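Morning run. Coffee first, then this:
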Amino acid sequence: MRKATRKKATRKAAPRKTTRKVAAKRKTVRKKAGRPGVKPWSAAEISMLKKAYKTTTATAIARKLRRTVSSVKAKIRVLGVSKPKSARKAAPKRKVTRRAKPKKAVARKTVAKKKTAAKRKPARKRR
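And here it is:
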């Protein structure tokens, strides 16, 4: 006689999702990686920054965009935007302060000569 064998329970495989559907789900769930509390730059802000930086200062742009001056300057650096040479401000010339010259040693010698001359004078005789 044959042994009674049990059939293993097989699970029906779930229909596979196409890779496009999976990728579409991932896009909706994932957020852009960034620092917490940092507002990401929009395309409109970036285009405005590129146009405005040629004629205005970083502080004026920061006020318009409601961002910090340091964030605007950092974004300018990342984008590689630069001002034309005609719009750049010349660096202010610094005043060179000169140190006072040390007093000459001659002044001390004259004081010493006066003291020795006073000693040499003969004392007045009292009557």
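The mean pLDDT is 75. Good start to the day.
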